[in-house]
Amino acid sequence: MKKVLWLVICVLGLTLSSCKSEKDKTFDDPCGGKAPGGATGLLMSLQQDKQLGLSAVDQIEGDPTNYPILDSAKYPEAYGHIYRITNTILNSGKVYYKDEFAWRVRIIKDDKTLNAFCTPGGYIYVYTGIIKYLDNEMQLAGVMGHEIAHADRRHSANQMLKQYGIQALIQILTSGTTQQIAQLGSQLLALKFSRTDETEADDYSVRYLLGTEYDPQGAKYFFQKIGGSTTTPEFLSTHPNPDNRVENIEATWTCLGSGGNNGTFADRYQSFKNSLP
Question: What's the mean pLDDT in 116-124?
């Protein structure tokens, strides 16, 4: 009976995460790691996740005043660095939707903003402010692992479902007006993640980096640096306390076996900074 139900779900396309092969059970671990999806996977397809992300992409890339994106053709060295970091994380073997989402990355020229974010479907944006603020490549990899986790764990889709309800959200994605899609993108960009989502993204940043050349606790060092500064970035104002996040990251790393490499790549990172305007 269970096998029949599993086949019905796959055929109907209600959730791709339910149709993963047996090998994907390796995503489970004794520290609470599990495949993403849940209720969101049953209500929204991955294609709809991508549509949701693209509604935000349209808002970002149609507003160069507020989102001045560096041209990859003019800054190939900078993009080479950010592509390398992104691909290292994606190829760790732990990003669940590595082959399903776009994972396209862009750099926003804004030295005053210490931020990075990733929309549903894997559209990643990193500000020059946070790149220049950090000390080494490992710290940025920790931040990017965290942002990738928000998309991979489908946190934005889950939050938008709570705001709109499944019928209204799906209707906008499938047959909404240009104005409705634009409004959806704007709300997505203003979205605040729950503390639970932030903690889970920290946890998965550790998992992603564990299979790479970087120190798996990369995000921890970012929060330690932020915690030692005189001002807290606005995007962290509603998030869990940096000290608590450091403790949580350390606990996750310990639970996973305290393994991994310890690469920081400060010299390589300085070359990245030097390639930026």
Answer: 97
- Say if CB 52 and CB 156 are below 8 A apart: yes
Distance CA 270, CA 1 (A): 58
Of 51, 44, 35, 143, the residue nearest 95 (C-alpha): 35
**CB of 18 within 8 A of CB of 46?**
no
| Across 152-163, average pLDDT | 92
Token pair in block for residue 58: 């349209």
Distance CA 149, CA 153 (A): 6
% of the chain residues with pLDDT over 70: 84
First vs last C-alpha separation in the chain: 61
C-alpha–C-alpha distance, residues 122 and 9, integer Å:
25
pTM attached to this predicted model: 0.88
Q: Which helix (H) or strand (E) holds 104?
A: strand 104-108
Tell me which residue of 149, 264, 132, 135 sits closest to 205, measured CA to CA.
149
Convert the pLDDT of each residue in 192-204 to its tens digit. 999 999 999 999 9
Task: Judge whether 16 and 100 are in contact, CB under 8 Å.
Answer: yes
